[in-house]
Amino acid sequence: MDHSEDLEKILGELEGLVKKAGYDEFYGYQMDPKGEFYDSKIASKLIYKLLKAYNFNLEETRRHFVDILKWRGEFDPLSAAFLEKHDPKFDKIGVMTLNPDGQSGDKVITWNLYGTIDNSEDVFGRLDEFMRWRVGIMEQAINQLDFDDTTNDYMAQVHDYKGASLFSMTGDAKKASTSIIKMFGDYYPEVLSRKYFVNVPALMAFLFNAFKAFVAEATRKKLVMLRHGVELSDYIDGVGVPKSYGGKSGKGLDELRFIFDKDRVRLPAYVSYLLETKVTNEVD
């Protein structure tokens, strides 16, 4: 079905929607048609993603778009990704890798390693600290997407449960997990190609399969559960897949870790402008 009329309708309302939100940056790009950094082609791609996420329901798309812009203005995810320094304790539980020779949707991968947590209170005890770190990784991953390239406008996500126990999750961990899932669901629609759950214990696999029966078909197709990590290479191939997951790179996950370097990574012009403005205002 052709949804070009729906797309044009929302694009024609951008100025008013941005004004209502009081903020005009979405996934690093300016959405105000009168703005200096506005790119109509990118805006069309991003709005189409939103329409798709909300089943081309115009009212839902408008509402969520405004909510997302408001949240981005308040939470400031760009600072979390590109300005703030996060505690190194988080490095062992979250990693991003680049997989340039991967298939569509697998060129950027984020890894969540639940079995590496020794002190749950230390990691999840300060929820805001955890959330800003995790959102920072998501924003850095989005920065590596190319919304002009249909083979690289989605990312993959891997949740590794090796060493984790279904019954060992503390109250802090459950709260952090629930909070980040809700945040990503509310404010990062239509960026994941698939979610892979690997090294899943038998009981968790049973509960996972039961849970899948209650989610929408479009979401269900994005969820893949694997009992063993090496099985991941049956779904994702390329230099960004570590050897412990069946990858052919011969490298470990930490060796493949993408580390953001502002001198080597090119940010969208509007992101650079917003960050420079923020730093200048803080200095003044």
What labels describe this entry?
iron; 12 helices; five-stranded mixed beta sheet; 284 residues; membrane; Phosphatidylinositol Transfer Protein Sec14p; alpha/beta; two-stranded antiparallel ribbon; phosphatidylinositol transfer activity
Shape: globular
Could you give me the name of the CATH homologous superfamily of the largest domain?
Answer: CRAL-TRIO lipid binding domain
| Count of individual beta strands | 7
Main sheet properties:
5 strands, mixed
Look up the CATH topology of the largest domain: Phosphatidylinositol Transfer Protein Sec14p
| Low-pLDDT stretches | none
End-to-end C-alpha gap: 52 Å
* Count of alpha/pi helices: 12
Q: Strand-and-helix sequence, N→C?
A: HHEEHHHEEHHEHEHHEHH
Helix content: 40-55%
Radius of gyration: 19 Å
Task: Report strand order across the widest sheet.
Answer: 3-4-5-6-7
CATH architecture of the largest domain: 3-Layer(aba) Sandwich
Mean pLDDT, rounded to whole units?
89
What's this model, at a glance?
GO terms for molecular function: metal ion binding; phosphatidylinositol transfer activity. Its cofactor is heme b. The protein has 284 residues and is α/β, with parallel strands linked by helices.
Task: Give a structural overview.
Helix 2 packs across helix 4. The protein folds into 2 domains: 4-75, no CATH class; 89-256, 3-Layer(aba) Sandwich (Phosphatidylinositol Transfer Protein Sec14p), CATH 3.40.525. The protein has helices spanning 4-12, 14-21, 40-53, 58-75, 77-82, 120-124, 127-143, 171-187, 202-212, 217-220, 253-256, 269-283; strands at 25-26, 29-30, 94-98, 108-113, 155-160, 192-198, 223-225. Helix 8 (171-187) links the parallel strand 5 and strand 6 (192-198). By secondary structure, the chain is α/β, with parallel strands linked by helices. The protein has 12 helices and 7 strands. It catalyses: a 1,2-diacyl-sn-glycero-3-phospho-(1D-myo-inositol)(in) = a 1,2-diacyl-sn-glycero-3-phospho-(1D-myo-inositol)(out).
